Amino acid sequence: MPVAVEIDNLVVRYGEKTAVDGLTLTVTGGTVTSVLGPNGAGKTTTVETCEGFRRPDSGQVRVLGLDPIADHDALMPRIGVMLQEGGAWSGVRALEMLRYVASLHSHPLELAPLVERLDLGTCGRTPYRRLSGGQKQRLSLALAIVGRPEVAFLDEPTTGLDPHGRREIWQLIRDLRDDGVTVVLTTHAMDEAEQLSDQVHVVSAGKVIASGSPDVLTEHGAKSLEDVYLALTAPPAREKR
Amino acid sequence: MSTTYAPRPGSAPWPRKVLSHAVMEFRLLLRNGEQLLLALVIPLGLLFLLGGTGLGDRLPLGDGPAVDLAVPRVLALAVLSSSFTSLAIATGFERRYGVIKRLGASPLSRTGLLAGKIGSVLAIQLIQLAVLIGAGFALGWNPVGGAAAVFGVILMVLCGTAAFASLGLLMAGVLRAEATLAAANLLYLLLLVGGAVLTPVEEYPEGMQGVVRLLPSAALANGLANSTLEGVVPWAAALSLTLWAGVLGYLVSRTFRWD
User: Fold this and answer.
1) To the nearest whole angstrom, how far is the Cα of A214 from the nearest Cα of chain B?
2) Entry pTM
3) Low-confidence ranges of chain B (pLDDT < 50)
4) What is the DSSP letter of A129?
5) Chain B window 70-109: which residues touch A at a Cβ cutoff of 8 Å?
6) Do the beta carbons of residue B177 and residue B99 sit within 8 Å?
7) Which of A98, A82, A69, A201 is nearest to A153 (CA)?
8) Please, which pLDDT band fits residue A159 given cuts at 50, 70 and 90?
9) HEC string of B19-51?
10) B33 touches chain A (CB under 8 A)
């Protein structure tokens, strides 16, 4: 399978602070790849660099072979981005927002089945500011995939959803992958990563510290992904006096 | 029927994206009471006060019937409110709510976003002009100059919009949303009183006139007044506003960011 995302020795700094420190990873096309890591590990900065929001201080990022900043206008129609929060006018109605984003694309998904699958029909005329957390989350996912992207970057897609809602989104992510969409997932939910991912990258202090399929990382199910993650990302033990 | 999510990416044609964005911003603005207050209620109230109550005869608006002096200056205020104050505040909060970021990861493109915003502003201005000019005629407004005056007004509205929209976008790009809200309203009031919007430059103290004359608000208001009071095409004011638009537009292009 072709490489969808290629990150080579990426460094991103915010002033004195180094958020991403020589990170290298690849995402194979047509897979679900999860990026895991503690808060502040550099996950969001890495993904935002792929989306063209951050400029690398050094290193290289290619998404579908394109530079996210230099080739911004060529790349954006080909990717879908689910933001962690916000991303809509406070007064816009849910379906109005979905129709608007669909209108920016040449061959958007049919809206009726998407609305039904993401259970947005009942809140279609509700202003964004009055949507519940789960409704905002489902709308944000719909906005990310309505343009029929080749790569979908999903940032914590099931935060705030009830167990039924989570399972429905998991199945949707599997369907996306089965239809050929590359999904890059950032999540704190270990069960989500374990259930969905073909490949997992664990990031800590701006670097990839472990990569592999969930099966390999969990030693064929001998450990849970959460145990593996906790062991990999444990803070260093304090020196005893 | 099962849905396929098979990738079929692509951008809509540029004009369709721009129209779609302009329509969206226009609809949202019509739902926003505060923005409508700024765009219509305040200019209309001032027009009635200055041109319909006799108050205009007591204020330093210049020589001539109060309503003839008031209409072009209230039109200038309306252009200032829609192209600068409303646009700056709306864009500042779009950034705060992540809308700019969301659009940055869409096929809209930077030029599409800016063109859509300008399209929405021009649509609002059509309504402003229709309402204020209609109210002006109802109050007895008697413009001179015929086609030259009409051309002059259109030229001033377009050049003024380019200059003040650039200023609004610059402010929204470098300040936080709350600071943009405060600064845009403050500058609106300062220009209203001290920027030769309602009062001709000649009515200011001599020491101030040189500075006030250089302001884009003075160019816009005086250009509109010259068009409808004297029937001339205000080329000098158009040049001044174009220069302002060029400098401010360059700064917007240097400071614009998607997040």
Assistant:
1) 25
2) 0.90
3) 1
4) G
5) 93-94, 97-99, 101-102, 104-109
6) no
7) A82
8) confident
9) HHHHHHHHHHHHCCHHHHHHHHHHHHHHHHHHH
10) no
Residue A126 dihedral angles phi and psi, to the nearest 5°: -85, 135
| Residue closest to A154 by CA, chosen among A21, A9, A6, A27 | A27
Judge contact between B187 and B72, C-beta under 8 A: no
Average pLDDT over residues A45-74: 95
**Of A73, A78, A60, which is closest to residue A153 (Cα–Cα)?**
A78
ipTM for the whole complex: 0.90
Sequence-distant (6+) residues with CB within 8 A of A103 are B12, B16, B17, B20
- Write out pLDDT tens, residues A111-131: 999 999 999 989 999 999 999
Cβ atoms of residues A52 and B258 within 8 Å:
yes
Q: A 73-112 residues with CB below 8 A of B?
A: 73, 76-81, 83, 85-92, 96, 100-101, 103-107, 109-110
Number of H helices, E strands in chain B: 13, 0
**Distance from C-alpha of B192 to C-alpha of B80, rounded to nearest angstrom:** 9
Nearest-CA distance B27 → chain A (Å)? 9
Contact B3 A105 (CB under 8 A): no
Name the class of domain A30-41+78-233: alpha beta
Flag whether pLDDT at A85 surpasses 70: yes
DSSP letter for B201, please. Answer: G
Closest CA to B57 of B140, B49, B190: B49
What is the Cα–Cα distance from A43 to B202, expressed in whole angstroms?
Answer: 60
Kindly state the helix (H) or strand (E) to which residue A26 belongs, with its residue range: strand A17-28
Using an 8 Å Cβ cutoff, are B11 and A105 in contact?
A: yes
Of A87, A90, A181, the CB nearest to B101: A87
- Angle, alpha carbons A217-A25-A156 (nearest 5°): 70
For chain A, say whether B32 makes contact (Cβ under 8 Å): yes
Do strands A32-36 and A151-155 pair parallel, antiparallel, or not at all (unpaired)?
A: unpaired
Residue keyed to tokens 């505060």: B34
Phi–psi pair at A206, nearest 5 degrees: 80, 10
Sequence-distant (≥ 6) Cβ neighbours of residue B115 within 8 angstroms: B18, B21, B22
- Identify whether the C-beta of residue B133 lies closer than 8 Å to the C-beta of residue B149: no
Cα A181 from Cα A166, distance rounded (Å): 19
Locus of tokens 């060529």: A74
Secondary structure (3-state) at A64: coil
Q: Give me the pLDDT at residue A224, please.
A: 85
**Distance, CA of A11 to CA of A185 (rounded, Å):** 20
Q: Which of A201, A216, A238 is nearest to A20 (CA)?
A: A201
d(CA A229, CA A223): 10
Question: Is B11–A104 a contact, with Cβ atoms under 8 angstroms apart?
Answer: yes
| Closest-approach residue (CA) in chain A for B15 | A104
Domain boundary assignment for chain A:
30-41+78-233
